[in-house]
Amino acid sequence: MTDLQKIHNGCAVCHAQSGSLKAFDKHQDVDYARSPAVMCRTPEGLGLVQDGHGVWVTPQRLAHNRRRAEQLQMARSGGHTVS
């Protein structure tokens, strides 16, 4: 049995933690012809939500992570096996 693997992508500008590279890239507006070159969009404005660790993820990813955590908890407590 394996535990959930968390991958966080931290932003050096706004310090937000994104749960995927796609979400990270989407939150940054980059234009090297202006100053500052990198401006951050608000995660809420992109439809992202924070998980229990403060990481910004899609609502679908949050639901998936919660279901997976419940499955792992059941397996640990003698319930059915998680593959």
Summary keywords:
single chain; 83 residues; alpha+beta; four-stranded mixed β-sheet
Strand content: 15-25%
Radius of gyration: 16 Å
Inertia-based shape: elongated
Instruction: Name the structural class.
Output: alpha+beta
Report the helical percentage. Answer: 25-40%
Number of helices: 2
Largest sheet: 4 strands, mixed
Polypeptide structure, described:
It is a single chain. With 83 residues, this protein is α+β, with helices and mostly antiparallel strands. It has a four-stranded mixed beta sheet with strand order 1-2-6-5. It is elongated, with a radius of gyration of 16 Å. 12% of the residues are buried. It has one domain. It is built from two helices and six strands, in the order ββαββββα. A hairpin with a 7-residue loop joins β3 and β4 (38-40).
In short, what is this structure?
With 83 residues, the protein is α+β, with helices and mostly antiparallel strands. The chain is 30% helix and 18% strand.
Which helices and strands occur, and which strands form pairs?
Elements: E1 9-10, E2 17-18, H1 21-27, E3 28-30, E4 38-40, E5 49-50, E6 55-57, H2 59-76
Parallel strand pairs: 2-6
Antiparallel strand pairs: 1-2, 3-4, 5-6
